[in-house]
Design brief:
mainly beta; F-box-like_dom_sf; 29 strands; about 450 residues; F-box_dom; KIB1-4_b-propeller; F-box domain-containing protein; about 10% helix; 2 domains
Length: about 450
């Protein structure tokens, strides 16, 4: 039976079982497949229909044009090109991703949600409704500049506000964005970590302004846990829980911090429901140090060294969404490389014991895999994603200074927790989007 003659109710079921790159290709088979693919891609709750997706790398490059992005499939190790709606993606900063959506900041420093597969886009509340930002208008009422005040609820860094051109404000304000749920459902919350001092603001679907959370600063990462609370982690590892449905909007300290020193810090919910905290630090190798070979051995840690085994719950709604693990700037397609780095990122993983109020170092992720960067930190059960290897960490460069180092290469790699070695994943070039990789 040819594709043209498949029953109408069978074809969508077949297409829904495909990885996103296969879904994109399937639309080229014939006209009926194209219609079915287009219909599936534009369904209101796409993530609920299609199979759990292996994370992809989303990036921009000059060869694709200003309004297209590259999509690198980890499952196939192959790049694709996606045409995206305005504003041109190469002119945008990308500060977060989850549930198949990315959070973009355009040249007016305004924020949007964008689904790269469906092309759907949602405007978020204006940047001028963030607590520390005010619009400066001309005689016709048009916004020409932004006034930015350097204060928190308890401290003023500068007595005089700064004035920025529209496209420059984003260099100073935005750090990272998080989603509570799939925006296609119409019920979601977006949380921002923003300056000064890495504060929090949030907006629900339909809000016309950002709501400031003034009782905390120096947040590095956030996660919405299954209990409905926002767990916001400080740069020292301390964790605050927010109930965004409570009018008081006061944080509850659930863990005191213990981390000091440079490097990144992330928080994620594991498939079993536990919170994990991950620390990344830079090591400067000796000249004799070598990166691991291009092909990593598939080493499974012994059972008695595994913290994780079978997940304690079914695949979550989050897992069912296309996961845009990393968004990078302009350049050629990503590729794995075994060249040594001038500096190496190493990781330590801790389980957050909320009952005992302690952090327990974990030597192995078992069959789980982490994705870290400016994407919403993600932990997946590798046996449900056969293209991925358990006990590995896929990471991308999310350094704050990279907003001002637009012509520096982005550090991306795959870290093997079993033997503490890494492969380098990188783009050969990049464009003027300014922000480091995210997902």
């Amino acid at each position: 039976m040819s594709g043209e003659k498949l029953p109408e109710d069978v074809l969508p079921t077949i297409l829904a079982a495909l990885e996103v790159p296969d879904l994109l290709r399937a639309g080229c088979v014939c006209s009926s497949w194209r219609r079915a693919c287009d219909s599936l891609r534009h369904e209101r709750e796409l993530g609920a229909r299609i199979r759990p997706q292996t994370p992809c790398l989303l990036y921009t490059n000059a060869s694709s044009g200003d309004s297209a992005a590259g999509l690198y499939s980890l499952a196939e190790e192959k790049p694709y090109t996606l045409a995206l709606p305005d504003p041109p993606i190469r002119s945008c900063y990308l500060i977060g991703s989850a549930y198949g959506w990315i959070v973009t900041v355009d040249r007016r420093s305004e924020l949007h949600l964008l689904n790269p597969i469906t092309g759907d886009q949602i405007d978020l509340p204006s940047v001028t409704t963030i607590e520390q930002v005010r619009p400066l208008r001309d005689c016709h009422g048009a916004v020409r500049l932004y006034e930015y005040s350097w204060y928190t609820a308890t401290h003023t860094e500068r007595s005089t506000p700064s004035v920025f051109r529209l496209h420059k404000l984003r260099d100073y304000v935005f750090q990272k964005a998080f989603l509570s749920s799939d925006p296609s459902t119409g019920a979601y919350t977006v949380v921002l970590i923003h300056n000064p001092y890495w504060q929090l603001s949030f907006a629900r679907a339909g809000d016309d302004h950002w709501t400031w959370l003034p009782d905390g600063v120096m947040y590095a990462d956030c996660v919405f846990k299954d209990d409905g609370l926002l767990y916001a982690m400080r740069v020292d590892g301390g964790i605050h829980a927010y109930d965004l449905s409570d009018p008081a909007l006061k944080p509850r300290v659930v863990m005191d911090g213990f981390k000091v020193g440079p490097g990144g810090i992330y928080i994620v919910q594991a498939p079993c429901g536990d919170l994990l905290q991950i620390h990344s630090d830079l090591e400067y190798p000796d000249e004799e140090d070598e990166e691991m070979p291009g092909d990593e051995p598939d080493l499974d840690p012994p059972d008695d060294d595994e913290y994780f085994s079978e997940p304690d719950r079914a695949t979550s709604e989050y897992d069912a969404e296309p996961a845009w693990w990393s968004v990078s700037e302009d350049g050629a397609e990503p590729e794995l490389d075994s060249m040594p780095l001038h500096e190496k990122v190493v990781f330590k993983v801790y389980r957050v014991d909320l009952t005992a109020k302690k952090f327990v170092e974990v030597s192995s992720l078992g069959d789980n895999v982490l994705f870290l960067g400016l994407n919403q930190s993600l932990c997946l059960y590798a046996k449900e994603y056969p293209e991925l290897k358990g006990n590995h960490i896929y990471f991308t460069d999310d350094g704050e200074c990279m907003a001002f180092g637009k012509h520096e290469k982005r550090d991306m790699g795959v870290f093997n927790l079993d033997n503490l070695t890494r492969r380098k994943l990188f783009l050969l070039g990049f464009g003027p989007t300014g922000h480091p990789p995210c997902g």
